[in-house]
Amino acid sequence: MRAEPASAFGSGVTPSKKGKIQAFALSYSQGSIETSEEVASAASEVFLGVEPSLERDEAVQAVYDLLALITHQYPVLLELDDSMEALAAVVNPMISVGAAKVRGTETLVVGE
After folding, report:
1. Cβ 82 vs Cβ 56: under 8 Å
2. What phi and psi, each to the nearest 5 degrees, are found at residue 21?
3. 62, 94, 104, 110: which has the highest count of C-beta atoms within 10 A?
4. Count of H helices and E strands in the chain?
5. Position 33 pLDDT exceeds 70
6. How do the residues of the chain divide into helix, strand and coil, expressed in percent and rounded to 5?
7. How far apart are CA 63 and CA 72, in angstroms?
């Protein structure tokens, strides 16, 4: 998702560049575009990121807009933790109302 483009010379001048990227998604697609229970179990894994310099409300809105765009047609699988505040602010209410499901309860981080 991009911010609305703006000109350095004011609102009366058409911007020469696109708006800055606010949120992005990378999909590890399973290659199926059918909608069924089988596809829901084989949802595409999506890595979702947000521009770290955004204010909290702007970051939440960017994540909301991008997730709405992606999930409109395709089921996705996200992995998130408490450090992902903007994503958690969007996904946790969805879980509360049954619009999203939790598949696992823990994540193991392995390192040296």
Report:
1. no
2. -70, 130
3. 62
4. 3, 3
5. no
6. 30, 15, 55
7. 14
